[in-house]
Amino acid sequence: MSKADHSDRARSLARFALLAAAAAVLVVLVSLVETGPLIILQGLAGLAVCAVGAWWFLAHRGIVRVLGGALAVGAPMAVLALFLNGGLWFTAPAGVALWAGALGCARGALRADRRPDPPAAVRPGRPPRRPVLIMNPASGGGKVARFGLVERAEALGARVLLLTPGTHTDVEELARKAVAEGADLLGVAGGDGTQAMVAAVAAEHDLPFLVISAGTRNHLAMDLGLDRSDPSRCLDALTDGVELRMDLGDVAGRAFVNTVSFGVYAAIVQRPEYRDAKAGTALDALPDLLSGDAGERLDALADGRPVSGQQALLVSNNPYSAADPLDVGRRPRLDGGELGVLGIRVDGAAQAADLAVRGALSPALTMLTSRRVEVRAAADSDAGAASIPVAVDGEALTLPTPVVCTLRPRALRVLVPRDRPGAVDQAPELDWRRIATLALDRSGSGARA
């Protein structure tokens, strides 16, 4: 598509976005004339009550948890009934649909207007002659066997090292031995924790690294744009691959490719029953952790900036795109040279409601970027030698404080298939002033080259 076509598309979508947004506002105003502003305030109150109920459900046990669950479920239903009884059975859905359309058109306009990523980020990859792939047959519920990864890899000339389920294997030592025996590429079919350990060895020897999406969640594979539904397609990189560079995180001398979690989540991961019953373990542990009876508050320094009294802290290898602590989304890039820092501090039901209503604008949520993050328990004294639970790419550890997180910029060479179905454009940050500029531009000059 030519530059002029991009400009016309961006301008048209921006105009549709403004029209849909104006129509949504008009629908709301008409509703207010018919029902009065009280019903809108009641809707916001219902949202706050739902957030309070969710907090009680997570932070308490017994009758308070039951009451919280009832509020979390009942409040939205009560708001819906209120809207229907108030005559909003048509205008409320219409307003929501129009606003959703406005948001979709606005993001489409910004995506069409945005300058594409520079092509120099990816370069042709040289097919390896002696690739070695480490595969965990138990990872992802048995994806290695289900997708025939061993047979396909060996047919492409790779040497496969299979881990033995139920036994401890020093994966780093296995990777080092493979390098000593002449491997010119290291790859992993397994979880992100195993990926990180082998990636550290590949970076140390400046060898290309291959990610095979055979884990459970495959966060790194997702951010690289790899096919997570069919891990065998990742092996296409061995014959038709391109190479890119990504940053490699370091926490207390240990590599990480995705995230380091402190506080509530890290404490839950430490529990032995977590692997077999994640949801039940989390619900059982959260009341003690959130009330402060178990676990500890965290203090952090991000490039010297204090982040104090946090219940949970997430440090990521490059920042994530979303401010939602329950769904941080994807990382728009992996070579930005900065850590993402997401901290949560909720001291009660009122702050939980504020976080639910205001989202990223709530003081309960801290979001920033940093090149160096130092984390310790808030109760530590300078003379203390405390340790805290840490989850490194989902793996449970206990590390002495202060725990220091840094990045090694562009330290890892990653070989990926030329065709990456998940390598889609990230949704740009919504900017209504830019939308208005695009919509009012008659010459097409508003679109960026």
User: Count the strands?
Assistant: 17
> What oligomeric state do these chains adopt?
single chain
The overall pLDDT, averaged over residues, is: 79
Low-confidence stretches: 116-120, 381-385
| Overall helicity | 40-55%
Topology as a string of helices (H) and strands (E) = HHHHEEHHEHEHEHEEEHHEEEEHEEEEEH
Shape: globular
Radius of gyration, in angstroms, nearest whole number? 25 Å
Description:
The chain has 449 residues and is of the alpha+beta class. Mean pLDDT is 79; it is low at 116-120 and 381-385. 40% of the residues lie in helices and 23% in strands. It has helices at 3-35, 38-59, 62-85, 91-113, 143-146, 149-155, 171-180, 192-204, 219-223, 264-270, 278-291, 349-358, 432-440, and strands at 122-124, 131-135, 159-162, 185-189, 208-212, 241-251, 254-256, 259-263, 298-302, 305-310, 312-317, 339-344, 365-370, 372-377, 387-392, 395-400, 403-417. Strand 15 (387-392) and strand 16 form a beta hairpin. It is built from 13 helices and 17 strands. Helix 1 runs antiparallel to helix 4 (91-113) and helix 1 crosses helix 13. The strands form two sheets. Strands 1, 2, 3, 4, 5, 6, 7, 9, 10, 14 and 17 form an eleven-stranded mixed sheet that branches. It has a six-stranded antiparallel sheet with strand order 13-12-11-8-15-16. The longest helix has 33 residues, at 3-35.
